Amino acid sequence: MKNLNSELFRNAKKRNRYLLITGVIFLILSISLFIFTYKYEHKPLPKTKDMATLVGDTSEINNVYASIEITNVPVLFATYQNYGIEEDSKYYLAMDRQNILYIVYMSSNEFNKLKNKTEQDFPIEIKGTTRIIPNDIKKLAIEEYNKVIGEKRLTEENFEDFVGTVLLDMELSPYNLDYLYIIAALLFGLFIPMITIYLVRALKTRKILKKYSMADLIKIDNEVKNLKNTPYDKMRLYLTSNYVVDSSNNIIIISYEDIVWAYKYEYRYSGVTVNKNIKVLTKDNKYYTICNTNLIKNDKEEVLNEVLKKIEKQNSKILIGLSPENEKKAKEKIKNQKSI
User: Is 0.85 surpassed by the pTM of this model?
Assistant: First the structure.
């Protein structure tokens, strides 16, 4: 931005800088949260509890780092599918030396390691984090166990006495903080649009200011200063004797002589009007958005009509209003302008 000691340009730059600072704060928070979560989840594991002591326990047994000394290769009985594709990790039935039955959730890689062990290698200690057994897995486990032993010994009524309420998840960390990763991702997601808006506004402002000399900018600034405390101050819109100046987002400066067409425009989202403003088409075939009525509470339609009348008053050749006829005339004007 040109080195102009102007309240108008200084305030616009300050507002954009706030956007940058807020975006950077979100980025720092996102990175800090990600690093904290990663370090926390990778700190030394706690001492394991014997899974057998958790069977029949009614205390807090969810998310406990535990172990089982299994005596044979676990039996696969269930797997989830996502869009027809099997998950790599599956559910298995396993037993320990005391012939206590457990449900274990492990990856195919971990299962293959156990599968390749010989009978002499057992018992083998497996470790993981406990979590509540889902109802559908519980039913499948009952069905599979009874099928293997050839009789209906395990039922929903005695399930907790024999198996308990939790399974051993070998893929789950006892320090699982996935929700913090989600928060970190959301914070980073806020940083992206903020830094994008900041760059777009800064580049647009710089591009517009390049069109004018320092003398012109001083003249424009003086004209704006004379219009302070006008009805359009809240929208940061200034209709000077020679220019339309809008600083609601980036700085927009348009000479009345350069305007070809101006009309009211509504931004809609899911059928709901989210903003009303004015679109301006200039001789160089570029559209600009001015008169941000989101910055005022009342009489939005009245303000838009009033601004259009004042613009038309400054240059009677400007086409006013959105219509197919005006659109056609505007295109012809720009085409004729280029051919001159």
Answer: no
